[in-house]
């Protein structure tokens, strides 16, 4: 699930001084987040295998909740600020925070599934967008570019760099491909709460923002639109859609910063 929406004021870059609430996790805590993240990955694998025309988004939610609970975890999103389901399912022009329901998936749809699992008090958060064939080449490219931008953001998440280096890496990949990146929602620190410091925007200048340090655990989650990046929130208070109706994709990993080199991805199977 994505971090709180930005007000214009919040978009101003924070420096190290105002980012005092960033928690550095011990090696043991990182392992606990990894245990939760593994469940997230296995659920996303199962959702990838399950998506098919005719299936409702509520059925995806039920599958995810069953798996999360069978693993001894709880679905992090359920009840979070009143969110009524276990996972977010966002279809086509829906970007994030879609509420599962009786909508039936159809060929040509893309469906973004965002999964959070809490195990022993520690949280993993991850998302992927799936497509239901046949989809046009441009839609396939949207998904590929979004995943590439996530990988670029992960590669930039090295200790000593700054949060803005991640943001810049994501934005560069997206815009070089002719797509746009959502400004209003962002990645975030994650650990014992779902949204911790720092915020991890998907756009902005390199070399700015809080310094990245070993032990930081963050969710990097580009939200990419085929058209413009303006989004609106539905009357249900949750579902975020593109204003221009263009399709949007969302990929997310929870990663742990290490001493040297790229971070450890905690939301892999
Ligand atoms: Mg998230």
Task: Describe, in plain words, how this protein is organized in 3D.
This protein is α+β, with helices and mostly antiparallel strands and 269 residues long. It has one domain (11-265): Creatine Amidinohydrolase, CATH 3.90.230. It has 5 helices and 15 strands. The protein has helices spanning 8-11, 27-50, 57-70, 137-155, 163-176, and strands spanning 74-75, 88-91, 94-96, 110-119, 122-131, 180-181, 187-189, 196-200, 217-220, 223-225, 231-233, 240-242, 248-250, 253-256, 264-265. Strand 4 and strand 5 (122-131) form a beta hairpin. It is globular. The protein starts with 7 loop residues before the first helix and ends with a strand. Bound molecules: magnesium ion. Residues 1-2, 125, 188, 219, 221, 252 line the site of magnesium ion (MG).
Report the biggest beta sheet as strand number plus sense, adding barrel if it closes.
5 strands, antiparallel
Cα shape: globular
User: Any idea of the CATH class?
Assistant: Alpha Beta
Helix content: 25-40%
Which molecules other than protein and nucleic acid are bound?
Answer: magnesium ion
Give me the CATH architecture, please: Alpha-Beta Complex
Q: Report the sheet-strand fraction.
A: 15-25%
Distance between the termini: 19 Å
- pLDDT averaged over residues: 94
The tally of structural domains comes to 1
CATH topology (fold) name: Creatine Amidinohydrolase
Count of DSSP helices? 5
Low-confidence stretches: 6-20
Order of helices and strands: HHHEEEEEHHEEEEEEEEEE
Kindly state the number of beta strands.
Answer: 15
Structural class, by secondary structure, is: alpha+beta
Computed Rg = 17 Å
**Spatial order of strands in the largest sheet:** 8-7-9-14-15
Q: Name the CATH superfamily assignment.
A: Creatinase/methionine aminopeptidase superfamily
């Amino acid at each position: 699930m994505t971090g709180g929406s930005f007000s214009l004021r919040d978009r101003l870059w924070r420096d190290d001084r105002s980012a005092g609430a960033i928690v550095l996790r011990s090696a043991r805590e990182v392992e606990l987040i990894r245990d939760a993240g593994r469940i997230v990955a296995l659920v996303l694998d199962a959702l990838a295998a399950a998506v098919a025309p005719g299936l409702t988004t509520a059925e995806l939610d039920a599958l995810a909740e069953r798996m999360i609970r069978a693993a001894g975890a709880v679905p992090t999103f359920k009840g979070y600020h009143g969110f009524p389901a276990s996972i977010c399912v966002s279809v086509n022009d829906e970007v994030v925070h879609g509420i599962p329901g009786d909508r039936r998936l159809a060929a040509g749809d893309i469906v973004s599934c965002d999964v959070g699992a809490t195990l022993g008090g520690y949280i993993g958060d991850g998302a992927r967008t799936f497509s239901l064939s046949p989809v046009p080449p441009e839609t396939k490219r949207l998904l590929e570019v979004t995943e590439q931008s996530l990988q670029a953001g992960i590669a930039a998440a090295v200790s000593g760099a700054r949060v803005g280096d991640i943001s810049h890496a994501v934005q560069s990949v997206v815009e070089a491909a002719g797509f746009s990146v959502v400004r209003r929602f962002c990645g975030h620190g994650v650990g014992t709460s779902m949204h911790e410091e720092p915020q991890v925007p998907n756009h902005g200048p390199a070399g700015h923002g809080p310094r990245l340090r070993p032990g930081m655990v963050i969710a990097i989650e580009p939200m990419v639109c085929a058209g413009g990046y303006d989004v609106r929130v539905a009357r249900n208070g949750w579902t975020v859609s593109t204003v221009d109706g263009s399709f949007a994709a969302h990929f997310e990993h929870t990663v742990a910063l290490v001493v040297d080199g790229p971070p450890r991805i905690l939301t892999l199977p």
